[in-house]
Design goal:
Blueprint (H helix, E strand, L loop, with lengths): L9 H4 L2 H8 L4 E3 L10 H6 L4 E9 L2 E10 L7 H40 L4 E4 L8 E4 L1 H7 L3 H4 L4 H4 L12 H14 L3 E2 L3 E2 L2 E2 L5 E2 L2 E10 L5 E10 L1 H24 L4 E4 L4 E4 L1 H6 L11 H5 L4 H16 L4 E9 L5 E12 L5 E6 L1
Antiparallel strand pairs: 1-2, 2-3, 4-5, 4-11, 6-10, 7-10, 8-9, 10-11, 12-13, 12-16, 14-15, 15-16
């Protein structure tokens, strides 16, 4: 039989009845193309196809695939031949579907590997095999962050690489990582660890103090079984030292304020909340727990003859979006003593010009 390889239009070969049978997955048997009114005799004659079987495969009413078996002579197709053709069609389709699924899986794995490798976040993958937790994969960002080569990581047990050292404070939090991974393995949800310290070995061999934020998350299969644990560790050493410096500065400021008896107040305009520190309360002759933490509580101390002027000045300054304000007014302390007070404050406005909060002394 000569090759009929090429593109052929279905409408030139099949009738509407034939096409409908294909969509329903029904076999078409043609014993003689030159005598069967369902087919185009001239078209099949030109290809020297004088009889054929077509075994379509449809899923949910949608035509997917078809196997055609032609013959150059008219013939009566037997039942066993048709049954065999059906079986072959099913097997071919199964193999094709498996091949497509495997190809899709390969592509998916390739995309995952590419994303994993290119991610700027440091990632490490460990096997769910406690207590070893064997490291199975690591991306470039993790290698760069930890100063450890990929060769020194892959295939090693987690705590053999990140050792627990009772004699070194910077090597005592690694056990917390193993505990977190065990927790994820037991309960499944992702676990975000508290900031931990694990010192790295610098190029000159010295231990380098390093702080991390670590997250451990499970990779699950379709049945909820843990295939692996994704461990992300982000270095936050600069943030740690910045927070430490800020805390020290705040403590020094609080010490200075306490020593200088400087009263400080903040007004949250949106929530109508006014806070006085201890020194501010002492200037008004009250304890901290006696202040009502509302603007009304402040106005109760201002002398009536100064109150209206102070309210008008404040309203105008806010309307004009003045950032820094200075006011002088008299107050009557809890003990009845009248004192002049000078207040200096700064107001923060939003994009629409509305005041957000004010802080003053």
């Amino acid at each position: 039989m000569a090759s009929v390889k090429g593109l052929h239009k279905m409408k030139d070969l099949w009738t509407e009845e034939h096409i409908e049978k294909n969509d329903k997955g029904k076999v078409t048997v043609v014993n003689d193309t030159q005598a069967d009114p369902r087919v185009n005799a001239a078209a099949y004659g030109a290809m020297n196809i004088l009889s054929f079987l077509t075994i379509p495969l449809a899923r949910d009413g949608v035509f997917k695939f078809m196997v055609g078996i032609p013959d150059t002579k008219p013939r009566q197709w037997r039942g066993d031949e048709i049954a065999l053709a059906k079986e072959v069609t099913e097997r071919i389709w199964t193999r094709l579907e498996k091949a497509r699924a495997e190809d899709a899986l390969r592509q998916s794995e390739a995309r995952y590997e590419a994303l994993f490798a290119a991610s700027p976040a440091p990632f490490l993958v460990v096997a769910p095999n406690p207590p070893d937790f064997t490291i199975t994969a690591v991306n470039d960002a993790y290698v760069a962050a930890t100063l450890i080569t990929r060769k020194a990581l892959i295939g090693q047990n987690l705590l053999d690489v990140f050792t627990y050292d009772l004699n070194h404070p910077g090597r005592q939090d690694s056990g917390a990582v193993a505990h977190s991974i065990s927790q994820v393995l037991a309960t499944r949800p992702m676990h975000v660890m508290e900031r931990l310290r694990y010192d790295l070995v610098s190029p000159d061999g010295e231990l380098q103090p390093t702080w991390w934020l670590a997250v451990n998350a499970p990779m699950l299969d379709a049945h909820g079984n843990v295939l692996a644990i994704i461990h992300q560790a982000t270095p936050v050493t600069e943030q740690y030292y910045a927070e430490l410096a800020l805390r020290e500065t705040r403590e020094q400021l609080e010490l200075s304020i306490s020593a200088g008896k400087v009263g400080i107040w903040t007004h949250d305009v949106k929530n109508n909340y006014l806070h006085w520190n201890k020194q501010q309360c002492e200037l008004y002759g009250i304890n901290e727990n006696e202040f009502g933490e509302s603007p009304e509580a402040f106005w109760n101390f201002v002398l009536t003859e100064d109150g209206q002027r102070l309210e008008e000045e404040t309203a105008k300054e806010v309307a004009d979006r003045q950032l820094e304000l200075v006011h002088q007014f008299r107050i009557k302390r809890k003990d009845g003593k009248v004192r002049w007070k000078e207040s200096r404050n700064r107001t923060q406005f939003d994009e629409q010009g509305k005041p957000l909060y004010t802080i003053g002394i």
